[in-house]
Amino acid sequence: MISLADQKRRIEQGKLTPEGALAESLAAIDKHEADIKAFVTRAKNPKAQAQGPLAGIAVGIKDIIDTADLPTEMGAPSIYKGNQPRADAPIVMQLKLAGATVAGKTTTTAFAANDPTPTLNPRNRAHTPGGSSSGSAAAVGAGMLPLAVGTQTGGSVIRPASFCGVAAIKPSYRLLPPVGVKCFSWTLDTVGLFAAGVEDVAIALSVITGRSELNAAEMTSPRIGVVTQDFAGPPEAGGAEALQHAARAAAKAGASVRELKMPDIVAEAWKIHNVVQQFEAHQAFAWEYRQNYDIFPPMLRRRMDDSRQYTAADYDAARIVAVKARAALSEIFKDIDVLLALSAPGVPPKGLDSTGDPRYNALWTLMGTPCVNVPAYIADGNLPVGVQTIADYGDDAKAIAAARFMERALKS
Amino acid sequence: MISLADQKRRIEQGKLTPEGALAESLAAIDKHEADIKAFVTRAKNPKAQAQGPLAGIAVGIKDIIDTADLPTEMGAPSIYKGNQPRADAPIVMQLKLAGATVAGKTTTTAFAANDPTPTLNPRNRAHTPGGSSSGSAAAVGAGMLPLAVGTQTGGSVIRPASFCGVAAIKPSYRLLPPVGVKCFSWTLDTVGLFAAGVEDVAIALSVITGRSELNAAEMTSPRIGVVTQDFAGPPEAGGAEALQHAARAAAKAGASVRELKMPDIVAEAWKIHNVVQQFEAHQAFAWEYRQNYDIFPPMLRRRMDDSRQYTAADYDAARIVAVKARAALSEIFKDIDVLLALSAPGVPPKGLDSTGDPRYNALWTLMGTPCVNVPAYIADGNLPVGVQTIADYGDDAKAIAAARFMERALKS
User: Fold this and answer.
1) Residue ranges per structural domain of chain B
2) Helix B198-209 to helix B396-411 angle, to the nearest 10 degrees?
3) What is the pTM of this model?
4) N-term to C-term CA, chain B
5) CB pair distance less than 8 Å for B94 and A286
6) Could you give the residue numbers annotated as active site of A?
7) Contact list, B94 vs chain A (CB under 8 Å)
8) Can you tell me the distance from the alpha carbon of B80 to that of B108, in angstroms, rounded to the nearest whole number?
9) Which residues 379-398 of A are in CB contact (within 8 Å) with B?
10) Does domain A4-214 have CATH number 3.90.1300.10?
11) Are A2 and A146 in contact (CB under 8 A)?
12) Model pLDDT for residues A233-285, shown as the tens digit of each residue
């Protein structure tokens, strides 16, 4: 994989120019893209910027995010073929202002929901790369890009990161601006980042947001609460081993590790994520679903058909549960630094019919808490499983610092 | 003015067809638009729908809201001339699904901020109609439309409603979906509605959201806390009289009325509205402001230039104040039903150089509370001043029920 931190260091040491760094990424894309199919559109004649903390860094933008120079087809060309926004989304401008170069638009499941893309998993091409941010995760995993942008409404950043064996952050809700991004659910949609390792993610998030504290050093002796997420069902093959392996590695590296059961209200919140998401989705996708029903992406259409029964009262009740659960969860962080949980139930499923199950992600999206994926375990078939460090809302620096700890613990 | 409730009743009684209702609005637009200049674009051959609770109701859509059939120029044709979104925004779809007919796009200050439109105040054409939802307020005030959609980030729904002498609601934050609407500040942007009277607003909001309780009957003997908003400075000419007049009318009509001082934290929240708004605006308008600086609307550009100093730390501190203030304000609503406050410091200012001062609105936008404007007083020169009923977050039905009480109290 291409490390953003490494490219940046070489540029700072005068061993690499921004043009040279960008050329490394473009050459890698030329080499791997035909196999992996991570891009919807590639930028024409991308140029490195001379200045900026991300000068020379090639970035991929999930194709539900507006770009002024490239079409934005939402993973739904049946409806959005050739759609050309006038403006760049704020996250795209933040990257450009930091010096990065947009290398292209990466594949997304239709409207960042269910219908899969043709993208293959770079670790094992017979398996899904996950979704909805399929192309961003796969492009980083295949060593084509040092940085890519995705979004998570259910589990669309952390799960594909787990499946592709890359680092990623789903930051606190709205730390990165959710603007110029096709809306699925305004309560849930969260912009996130993929990169080779946690330091790479941390540098990018830090310079994009102008928050230097987010480039956090590794935490020493973190207090870790392991969450098995049994409220969301048991793990699959590879999952249980991965979590045990990560917890043991953490303890061995000096963390204080104990298993934590979530309060009932938090488990209840997991159950109502879908009510919030789908009630809002029926509004957010109203034009597409109601005016373009026949050409609406079929898997998402079925999901929309199956969720028409939710009423405003259901939605209000769900939001009250979410508010209570956020408060209860915040209490837990008084005694621990981070939670540690599986990023996905197990290894990436075989085939491209499904992008996998977001059941170990949906709660944390609803809670708005920062989550950082760390590759933890490689199961048979070169199939990765990740764990996520989860900190209190707004404490992204702690989630990152603990993820750096976990990353080292898992390597040693 | 054209009353939505009256048109709806006549249709239900068989005295009017939806086509006839729509024709009334279209004829009124033909008659007054040349004088008032409330529209950016008119729909070509608008047709009434046969079915739906808003069949025959003509609606105006503020031109920062996406429409699939009409351009959306954001009040900034220098940058967005001819911009044609692919989709209708959710609020537009909700209106169409309820049976309404889009009559056109209404004028907005550039990006719903400062730079005024050519729209005149229908009560006195030498004065501003207010902004940023200038065209929506003026079109309803001039009797051209029974319903119009606006947005409020500072005071852009309630203030123009006050200036144009119409009813309006800024609902609880995100009750109406803030999607497909040009973003100014994602923490603040709120979609709202204008109509002739409070019942008209209530019916529209109720059918759009599928929440029948929002078509609330008049409240009897409400407990009203009068807020002078002295933390935001004293009222102007017309303002002080209007609030006293409204408070006296409420007491005479049977309300329990007392003056309430806001807790210090709430007054502090008023001060930091601008930090939240401008810190987010620099992200939301990044493409327009950074890539199109020379053609960026000049008054908003000055405001952007003057707010570049806000840091992430300033923003975080401001958001903490806002959270505390929301909690403190919510406590107040345990003892009263609604707050009553001026909707604007006074009468609409003379001329079109400014759309007036949002200082009596910004706090309530930041608090996310529902606010309903009720025309309260006519000062010399036929210049209206409104008062707003303000309820706890999520209690839009109570804000409406109390506004209906105030409307009757002020008429009798």
Assistant:
1) 4-214
2) 160
3) 0.98
4) 19
5) yes
6) 62, 132, 156
7) 283, 286
8) 13
9) 394
10) yes
11) yes
12) 999 979 999 999 999 999 999 999 999 999 999 999 999 999 999 999 999 99
